[in-house]
Amino acid sequence: MSEETKIHTLDPDKWIDSYADYLFNYTIARVSDAEKAKDLVQETFFAGLKSMKNFEGKASERTWLISILKRKIIDHYRKTNSKKGKAEVRMNFYSDGERDGDWLEERVPQEWNGGADAEMESEELGAALQACIEKLPEKYRMVFEMKTIQGFDTEDICNELDITSSNLWVIIHRARTQLRKCMEDNWFKK
């Protein structure tokens, strides 16, 4: 019987001995938190037990468990990056210790109402910001524009660019840090 037509079976009594280390290593590389990785592996085993009746035997036990684990990891990041979670994410706006201030992830600047001067200043600010965006490394620029300007969903960006959601948030953070530095050097020091 070839590997393609082989029907695989489940043996939950051996899951911990056979797959716990592999699943943990897979998870820790994606969530960087040992306790959360252990929880996700445990949730994977419980979900596997609950859905054993759905196992068709087309994939190996390990492949099937990994597919469950991937969904658990995605759910973890969705929960972390939900609106409630984002409202708690703060990033220091200034790099020096003399000034303080944080960005709340979900805060959007209010519209300016200052007439012609404000409109001209707004256009200049927009041009300076666009110039700084264009200076970003290509991948940073692409991810930043897709997420922040074009409003794509995290999952769509990750699928399109073949990156993980944690990688996306690291790229967004680095892009914002570089933009902040560029704007401080080219706009705020005028």
Automatic annotation (TrEMBL):
Report which superkingdom the organism of origin falls in: Bacteria
Q: Which InterPro entries match?
A: RNA_pol_sigma-70-like, RNA_pol_sigma-70_dom, RNA_pol_sigma70_r2, RNA_pol_sigma70_r4_t2, RNA_pol_sigma_r2, RNA_pol_sigma_r3/r4-like, WH-like_DNA-bd_sf
Query: Where in this chain does the record put each RNA polymerase sigma factor 70 region 4 type domain?
Result: 128-179
Question: Is rRNA-binding one of the keywords?
Answer: no
Segments forming domain RNA polymerase sigma-70 region: 16-81
Indicate yes or no for the key word Lipoprotein. Answer: no
Keywords of the record: DNA-binding, Sigma factor, Transcription, Transcription regulation
Q: Which family does it belong to?
A: Belongs to the sigma-70 factor family. ECF subfamily.
Q: What is this protein called?
A: RNA polymerase sigma-70 factor (ECF subfamily)
Species the sequence originates in = Wenyingzhuangia heitensis
